[in-house]
């Protein structure tokens, strides 16, 4: 393992973000520096749901993407409790990030990355099958989740690419919750859901939290946020003051 | 004016050329089935008419030899007659149509029905020496495949036959594995004759004049016709005997006998047919006289 | 040998065309199950890199090492990272028969166009010593089914197939013998968009099912995003950025990558 294990990882934390800076360099605009975050610091304890708060544009999605690894960080540490060890996602090799995604970090985004031609039932069952669960068992479990999220059974055999936005989102949620990973990232998972399905998602979140999953979430809906948030991190307080840098 | 107007070197080819060919032959015998390149010379016939065979015969023949030449099994075709006459003239060799009298048999398309002996050399005329040619056009690549013993490609051809016809449809120039090492084209002999190459007491030489390749099978060498475990090689069979000499287990030609589509099946090996017939008539006369 | 040893390890690989570098100082490791996309515009050196990896072009500098057991060594089952330049031609060709596949952009370069689809897929098996027609045919049929070629087209030659079908036959021919590493050169770029999507999806699922390592060269960032884990961005013969595919595409650092991403992914 090449990642640093000497960092101070708080006990019982699934994730610890420490002093992270993020600046975008826009080479296409005369290498303009666009600082987004300065000194971002927070922990996600196991079994707790940490909600990222702040206005639109404050950098909530940037934090989420840095934790998932699809954005890099300029400095600081993003420590992940991964298979009994500590991985710093800022310095980890791509292959280690992939391993973390496979084993430790789950991600439910706003949009389903539609997999063409694969039936919804298999889209949902796939993470279980990848873990070695028998296909029939995985499908049965996937069916239960889809039913719970009110996806009619006649749609299960169809590829989700043909579904409505709300249906796609529910397929996505089912896929995200079918296996439990130590850390789950939720990026506005309830954005286009009705009240009933929002309720189901709240239940799913609570069940996962009860099993010790740490969650980092962005919620649009105040009622969902109220229902599950244990802590709120105000991203705005870490937002870099752009004028200051430009000066 | 006595004596010929032109004095040919014995065997037509000059001594240097014969050495080149013999050297290639020695290499060919040493590596059974391996195609040895050689500098093919002009001989007084067009390429494709057996110039490879003629150069081999010219390099091994001497005045003490008796030559038989067959074309499609027959001794009396223009080509066979001309080649015999040629060597009578340029090598002072005797010629024959009898397989059992010949020391050298130059052939196109057939191996005689009469079993060969250790005292005989068979010279095959080869149009296309490379068995992999039709699937792999690059000579550099086919030579590599031979060198590394990668013969999967050869089976592709057989696979295609079975997939298309339900059996291996190739009935002539059927590929063989020589001495467990090189895959070889046996020249366009019928697959019927393939088993005769296996462990033959005669020395078998192959010459491709246009393609400039020589190869050989020494006496008593394993020659295995390729096949699949579940579709092994099967030589052609004929259900009926020759309608002239009544031989069975021989290769038959279909001969048109009238203008109404009438046909008869007769031996392709004319020497074998004649001798069998003569022997039968002799037996018959003996019986009658008894 | 353990998880920490890559399957393929490339260090400082360079190829020169005369006194100009076609590809310079490229280094990367590839592990089993990883799909690496090499992206860039034409002339960026990505095809030259693939040519070196596939030993079609000389490696003028650097080394390419592959994890394999050296043949003809007593107890030769032990695997090591072996420098390909130290292997004999016979060993390299063995690797092409047993370990490596190559899917060409143009199916005619990777298939025997006048041999049936079944024969094309069966050939690698025959090359590996299969000599039972029934078994060869059954295996070829199974693979054609996996790449969605109808069984009743099995005995037709690829000349009678559409571009998408030809590519699928080529994929089957390259996977039938169970390789560990497959090189792909713009496998979808000659196809209609809808056919591309189907082929990519097929490749994606087969690759993950079989746990293959893949190096795929493409000028199409959407292809890289759909099937690769990691991406190398090439320009003027050099790697200018590399990393997780989604990070390279979502948070590109190099000016050129930003240009590439902004000019291709918009819309």
Salient structural properties:
heterotrimer; B: 290 residues; alpha/beta; Rossmann fold; 2 domains; 7-stranded mixed β-sheet; 3-stranded antiparallel β-sheet; globular; C: 267 residues; 6-stranded mixed β-sheet; 4-stranded antiparallel β-sheet; 10 helices; 10 strands
Summarize the structure.
Chain A is α/β, with parallel strands linked by helices and 247 residues long.
Structure, described:
With 247 residues, chain A is an alpha/beta fold. Chain A is 34% helix and 26% strand. Chain A is built from 8 helices and 9 strands. Chain A has helices at 60-68, 94-103, 120-130, 135-148, 165-177, 195-210, 222-228, 242-246; strands spanning 13-26, 32-45, 49-53, 75-82, 85-88, 105-108, 183-187, 214-218, 231-234. Chain A has a 5-stranded parallel sheet with strand order 6-7-8-3-9, sandwiched between helices. A 4-stranded antiparallel sheet of chain A has the order 2-1-4-5. In chain A, helix 6 links the parallel strand 7 (183-187) and strand 8. The model of chain A is unreliable at 243-247 (pLDDT under 50). Chain B has 2 domains: 15-221, Rossmann fold, CATH 3.40.50.11310; 252-289. Helix content of chain B is 30%, strand content 17%. Chain B is built from 7 helices and 12 strands. Chain B has helices at residues 15-30, 51-60, 78-91, 139-147, 152-165, 194-197, 270-289, and strands at 36-37, 66-71, 94-95, 104-108, 121-125, 176-178, 182-184, 203-208, 213-217, 223-225, 252-256, 263-267. Chain B has a 7-stranded mixed sheet with strand order 1-9-8-5-4-2-3. Chain B has a 3-stranded antiparallel sheet with strand order 7-6-10. In chain B, helix 1 (15-30) crosses helix 2. The termini of chain B are far apart. The mean pLDDT of chain B is 93. Chain C is α/β, with parallel strands linked by helices and 267 residues long. Chain C folds into 2 domains: 8-99 and 180-264, Rossmann fold (3-Layer(aba) Sandwich), CATH 3.40.50; 113-178. Chain C has helices at 46-53, 89-98, 107-110, 117-127, 133-146, 163-175, 193-210, 221-227, 245-250, 255-264, and strands at 8-17, 20-30, 35-39, 61-68, 80-83, 100-103, 181-185, 213-218, 230-235, 238-244. Chain C has a 6-stranded mixed sheet, with helices on both faces. A 4-stranded antiparallel sheet of chain C has the order 2-1-4-5. In chain C, helix 4 (117-127) packs across helix 5. The longest helix of chain C is centred in the last third of the chain and has 18 residues, at 193-210. The mean pLDDT of chain C is 91. Chain B binds chain C through residues 135, 144, 148, 150, 152-153, 155-156, 159-160, 162-164, 228-231, and chain C through 89-90, 93, 97, 112, 115-116, 118-119, 122-129, 131-134, 136-137, 154-155.
């Amino acid at each position: 393992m090449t990642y640093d294990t000497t960092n101070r990882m708080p006990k019982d934390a699934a994730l610890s973000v420490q002093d992270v800076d993020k600046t975008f360099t826009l080479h296409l605009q005369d290498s303009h520096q666009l600082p987004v975050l300065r000194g971002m610091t927070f922990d996600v304890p196991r079994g707790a749901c940490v909600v990222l708060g702040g206005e639109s544009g404050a950098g909530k999605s940037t934090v989420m993407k840095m934790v998932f690894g699809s954005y890099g960080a300029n400095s600081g540490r993003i420590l992940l409790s991964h298979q009994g060890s500590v991985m710093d996602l800022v310095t980890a090799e791509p292959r280690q990030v992939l391993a973390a995604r496979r084993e430790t970090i789950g991600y439910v985004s706003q949009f389903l990355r539609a997999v063409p031609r694969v039936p919804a039932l298999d889209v949902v069952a796939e993470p279980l099958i990848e873990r070695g669960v028998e296909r029939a068992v995985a499908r049965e479990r996937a069916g239960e989740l889809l039913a719970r999220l009110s996806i009619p059974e006649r749609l299960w055999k169809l590829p989700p690419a043909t579904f409505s936005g709300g249906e796609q989102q529910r397929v996505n949620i089912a896929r995200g919750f079918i296996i439990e990973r130590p850390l789950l990232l939720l990026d506005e998972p309830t954005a286009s859901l009705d009240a009933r399905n929002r309720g189901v998602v709240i239940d799913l979140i609570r069940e996962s939290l009860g099993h010790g999953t740490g969650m980092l979430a962005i919620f649009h809906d105040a009622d969902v946020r109220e229902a599950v948030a244990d802590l709120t991190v105000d991203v705005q307080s870490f937002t870099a003051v752009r004028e200051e840098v430009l000066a | 004016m006595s004596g010929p107007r032109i004095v040919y070197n014995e065997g037509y080819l000059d001594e240097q050329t014969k050495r080149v060919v013999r050297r290639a032959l020695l290499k060919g015998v040493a590596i059974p089935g391996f195609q040895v390149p050689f500098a093919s010379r002009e001989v007084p016939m067009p390429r494709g008419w057996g110039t490879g065979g003629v150069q081999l015969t010219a390099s091994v023949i001497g005045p003490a030899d008796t030559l038989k030449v067959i074309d499609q099994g027959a001794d009396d075709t223009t080509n066979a007659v001309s080649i015999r006459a040629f060597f009578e003239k340029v090598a002072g060799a005797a010629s024959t149509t009898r397989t059992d009298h010949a020391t050298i048999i130059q052939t196109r398309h057939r191996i005689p029905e009469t079993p060969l002996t250790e005292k005989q050399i068979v010279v095959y005329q080869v149009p296309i020496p490379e068995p992999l040619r039709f699937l792999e056009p690059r000579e550099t690549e086919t030579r590599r495949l031979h060198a590394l013993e990668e013969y999967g490609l050869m089976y592709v051809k057989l696979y295609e036959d079975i997939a298309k016809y339900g059996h291996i449809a190739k009935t002539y120039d059927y590929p063989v594995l020589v001495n467990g090492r090189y895959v070889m084209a046996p020249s366009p002999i019928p697959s019927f004759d393939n088993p005769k190459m296996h462990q033959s007491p005669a020395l078998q030489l192959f010459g491709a004049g246009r393609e400039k390749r020589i190869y050989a099978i020494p006496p008593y060498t394993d020659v295995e016709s390729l096949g699949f475990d579940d579709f092994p090689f099967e030589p052609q069979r004929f259900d009926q005997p020759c309608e002239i000499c009544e031989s069975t287990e021989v290769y038959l030609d279909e001969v048109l006998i009238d203008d109404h589509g009438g046909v008869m099946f007769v031996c392709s090996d004319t020497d074998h047919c004649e001798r069998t017939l003569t022997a039968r008539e002799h037996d018959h006369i003996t019986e009658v006289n008894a | 040998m353990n998880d920490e040893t890559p399957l393929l390890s490339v260090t400082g690989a360079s190829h020169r065309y005369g006194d100009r570098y076609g590809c310079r100082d490229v280094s990367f490791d590839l592990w089993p199950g990883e799909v690496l996309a090499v992206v860039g515009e034409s002339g960026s050196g990505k095809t030259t890199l693939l040519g070196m990896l596939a030993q079609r072009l000389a490696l003028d500098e650097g080394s390419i090492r592959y994890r394999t057991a050296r043949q003809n060594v007593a107890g030769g089952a032990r695997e090591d990272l072996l420098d390909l330049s130290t292997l004999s031609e016979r060993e390299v060709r063995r690797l092409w028969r047993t370990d490596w596949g190559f899917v060409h952009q143009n199916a005619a370069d990777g298939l025997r166009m006048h041999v049936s689809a079944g024969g094309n897929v069966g050939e690698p098996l025959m090359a590996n010593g299969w000599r039972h027609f029934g078994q060869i045919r059954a295996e070829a049929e199974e693979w054609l089914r996996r790449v969605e070629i109808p069984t009743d087209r099995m005995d037709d030659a690829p000349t009678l197939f559409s571009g998408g079908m030809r590519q699928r036959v080529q994929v089957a021919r390259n996977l039938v013998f169970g390789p560990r590493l497959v090189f792909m050169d713009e496998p979808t770029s000659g196809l209609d968009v809808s056919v591309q999507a189907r082929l990519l999806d097929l490749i994606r699922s087969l690759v993950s099912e079989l746990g293959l390592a893949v190096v795929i060269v493409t000028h199409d960032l959407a292809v890289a995003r759909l099937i690769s884990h990691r991406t190398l961005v090439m320009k003027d013969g050099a790697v200018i950025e590399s990393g997780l595919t989604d990070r390279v595409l979502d948070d590109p650092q190099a000016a050129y990558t930003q240009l590439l991403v902004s000019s291709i992914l918009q819309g």
